[in-house]
Every structure is written in C-alpha cells, then in structure tokens.
Amino acid sequence: MPKITSLDKIKRLKGWYELWLDKAVSFPVNDELILKHMLRIGSLLEPSEIKSIREQGEYFFLRKKALDALARRRLSEKELRRKLKPVPKSSTYIDRLMEDLREHGLVDDLYYAGAVIHTQIAGGSKSKRYIQNKLYQKGVAKEIAEQAIESELAEYDEYEAALRIAVKKYKTVRDLPLLKGKKRIADFLRGRGFGWDIINPVLNEIFTEEN
Q: Using one digit for the tens of pLDDT, what is the confidence trace for 135-149?
C-alpha cells in the first residue's frame, strides 16, 4: 500500500499541506482532512481511501481559492473561472464548484451586473451601449447584461445624462473657437458611448446663438 512520506505546509495558506505518497504523488489536504482521516507521516493508505481523500482535498482547495478571490472583490462567473484555471485539477471540479457557489448566492451574474451598472453610473454618465460593453468585457452573458440594464436603467434618460456631463465639459471649452469646442465635447461624449443621435441635439442645445 502507498505510504505517506511527507506533509509539507503550503506557503501563505494556513492549515493547508501538500501530502506526498511514496515521494512520487502529491495532492493538497487541509487540517480537517488530516484530523478526519488521521493522516500521519508513515501511514499506509488503501487505494480507495487515497481516491476519496484526494478528491476531497482537491475540491476543497479549489473552493478555498474561489472564496479567497471573491473575498477581494465580486466577480462574474466567467472571471472566476478564468482565475481558477491555473489551479491544478481545476477542470475536474470547476462545474461542480460553480453550481455550489451559485446555490449559496456567492456567484450571481445578475446581481453582479447590477453592481457594475451602478458603479459605472456613479463614475459619470455613460450610454447604455457603453455599459453593456463593459458587462461583456467582464464576462456577463448577453441575455443577463440586457436583463440587468432593462431592470436597473428602466428610467435612465440617455439624452439628459449626456447633456448633464456636456454642460460641465462646456465650461472647459467655451473660450475655444466654436468648431474646436464642439469637437472636444463630441469626442468626450463619444468616449462615453453616446451616438450621434444624442450628440447632435446636445451640441445644438449647448452651443446656442447666445453662447
């Protein structure tokens, strides 16, 4: 039977060890598994016992990595999968883990999308298209992004939003030649994702004859 030849502490992960069998095969285990199975250097393990301990250890290790990542900031499921991809054996357990995290509300792309939308708006007015593209970049699926925007921005007036930030921008360009000032504001609004159907009427309202 294979023998445990060492239990090496894993750096920066309290309570986690790399269990080595016959100095040839290794997998992670934590304090809980060590106590539960009374794992000690020199212990002999049955193949079926090794299989069970290894599966638990690798799954718990992946879950630990996921929870640590989520503790730092909220992530979409796609972002989290990307972060866990370098973890050894992650592909074996990742679908099961995602299901577990979804059931416990720790991965919720609709909630995440809502949070991203509010963060984007808090940083200044932007078009719905701009926000939608941000959600895509963060791995939110198209149907979820559309659902979140419809829910969170149901009363969001893109024209008023563009006008509000354009008025502020106008203060920095009002002493410029007319065409140059218009271009500065148009470029500014385009950078926030607004189309010409919004930009042109905003420019017309700001650059009146009086101005």
A: 999 999 999 999 999
